[in-house]
Amino acid sequence: MEPSSYVEPSSSSSGSSSPRLVSKKLAPVTDLESGYASATLSTAGSSSELPQITLTHPHVKHLNQQLEKMSAMDRLRFVKICFPNLYQSTAFGLTGLVSTDMLSRIEKESPDSSPVDLIFLDTLYHFQETYDLVDRVKERYPNIRIHSYKPDGANSVAEFEERYGEKLYETAEELYDWIAKVEPLQRAYSELNVAAVLTGRRRSQGGERDKIGVLEVDEETGVIKINPLVDWSFGQVKAYITENNVPYNELLDRGYKSVGDWHSTSPVSATEDERAGRWKGQAKTECGIHNKKSRYAQYLQEMQRKAEEEQLTAALERVEREQNVEITI
């Protein structure tokens, strides 16, 4: 049953970083730069193109300065108005669930406003508890549409392993990230014409996230990333979930704080960092979605560059042969 009151824990602001550049149109999925489609300037005109959103460095800095002063709820109200083709990318972690609940409240405030659909990357290796949570989220928020994207050519673990090999997450970790996460997200951005996306990243999660701003522009895709709960602590997130009766992953009650694939997620102790259970014992802190450029993406880019060079060389040789024939005649 929907709670009658909205409770947002108090939050404190901290300094923001100044992310980069211009929101742009996605190139075809065949462009494999950085594990995403590379960006070219949008000239919006048809429904198959991303809306044109141009943000200069000073503009991004100004927006971050203003957004830092706002509550999470007001940030969401603002970006819903400001950015067209706005989606939420989520694996149904606690932070993302807070955003989803807030968005449902905002929709009730303005029922005629554009809804924010969810993008869920179904790697096929999620815990059963995660899939159960997805069903409960659908039941709790029936007006929110969830777009689920799976690895290309696979609808089950059996199909995935037949196509790509068993335990790819162990034998070729970055290739696994590309196939299970990066490429499906790239496909979602392209098919849904995503211009801006809400994420669940927070500075208190540490690692490479400790200096992110409320608003960023992805250097590789041009897609605008908004982190509405960027300055919240894990305690604030958990308090909101509890006080507003938001459905959450049952694994949280078993010592998990951050939940991803079952093969790379472990419970943590009370004294460990929130994301310490992800890729435990490894230096890795991100799955590839938020990394600028993985080694596998660099490999793909290099293979594409070599293929283009070979095509150019073949074309030049063909022209040279034709010219030699003409001279002989």
Written account of the structure:
This protein is α/β, with parallel strands linked by helices. The protein is 39% helix and 8% strand. It has helices at 57-68, 72-82, 94-109, 128-140, 157-164, 168-171, 173-192, 234-243, 295-328, and strands spanning 25-26, 39-40, 86-89, 117-121, 146-149, 196-198, 215-217, 224-226. A six-stranded mixed beta sheet has the order 5-4-3-6-8-7. A two-stranded antiparallel ribbon has the order 1-2. β3 (86-89), α3 and β4 form a beta-alpha-beta unit. α3 packs across α8 (234-243). The chain is globular and about 85 Å long. Residues 1-6, 10-48, 277-281 and 283-287 have low confidence and may be disordered.
